[in-house]
Write a structure and sequence with these properties.
This protein is an alpha/beta fold. It has 9 helices and 9 strands. Helices cover 41% and strands 20% of the residues. The protein has a 5-stranded parallel β-sheet with strand order 2-1-3-6-7, sandwiched between helices. The longest helix has 16 residues. This is SGNH/GDSL hydrolase family protein.
Length: 235
């Protein structure tokens, strides 16, 4: 009997909105059985979440992959005209340097969740790309190119809403595209032809459980476009 692949996500609302980990597990069927868990608090920084102790304790449970997601602007406190801006990556890099050896020592593969820029600051994607790829190369982690996939999708179909109205968090289509990127990055599976409607445990924006229900329900053409975009971004 083949054991399931186990994926631990450590992040914030970009990880738990619209059941991203569950979407990944469902999309991986039938080729791969996947068990997922998320340790995520809204607005949390990676270093603070790790310092809380829950991720370190969870490592003892045995995981194949540990996905690390930093706050979407690499921290808070930098604004331009009231809009959050990407910060210097020094603190993010320091956190990754400290965390990745723990992940590797526990026998897991570290993966960095390269997030998408805010809808109102698309140029910030280049800064995020540079910050994530630089530290990934230094510590030997895999990068899940979520942000570049979002940028490609928005360039081709600007009318398809990937962000929630706050211009920051992922809308259902955005979380779906993210799940497709992880499907291809982690498992090498082609997202094309997979379902565009997924159900599972739901939570509200503050991670309060809402019971089982629809996580994403996309028109067939939109799902196919996002699947193709994810595949192209990860090849």
């Amino acid at each position: 009997m083949t054991l399931p692949t186990r994926v631990l996500f450590v992040g914030n609302s970009f990880t738990y909105f619209h059941g991203l980990p569950t979407q990944l597990a469902v999309l991986a069927r039938p080729e791969r059985a996947v068990e997922v868990r998320a340790i995520a608090t809204g607005g949390a920084h990676l270093a603070a979440t790790w310092a809380g102790g829950e991720p370190t304790a969870a490592l003892a449970e045995g995981w194949d992959y540990v996905v690390l997601q930093e706050q979407s602007c690499l921290g808070e406190g930098r604004y331009a005209d009231g809009v959050p801006q990407v910060r210097d990556p020094a603190d993010f890099h320091a956190a990754v340097r400290a965390i990745v050896p723990e992940v590797v020592a526990a026998g897991a593969n570290p993966v960095l969740y390269l997030t998408a820029a805010r809808r109102d600051t698309p140029a910030a994607q280049d800064l995020l790309n540079a910050a994530y790829t630089a530290i990934a190369g230094e510590v030997g982690a895999t990068v899940a190119p979520v942000g570049p996939a979002w940028a490609a999708a928005q360039a081709e179909r600007p009318g398809l809403r990937l962000h929630e109205p706050d211009d920051s968090h992922p809308a259902p289509a955005g979380s779906y595209l993210t799940a497709c990127v992880f499907l291809s990055t982690l498992f090498g599976l082609d997202p094309r032809g997979r379902p565009g409607t997924i159900t599972g445990p739901r939570v509200d924006p503050d991670a309060v459980p809402l019971g089982h229900g629809t996580l994403v329900d996309l028109p067939r053409a939109d799902a196919a476009f996002l699947q193709r975009t994810a595949r192209q971004a990860t090849r």
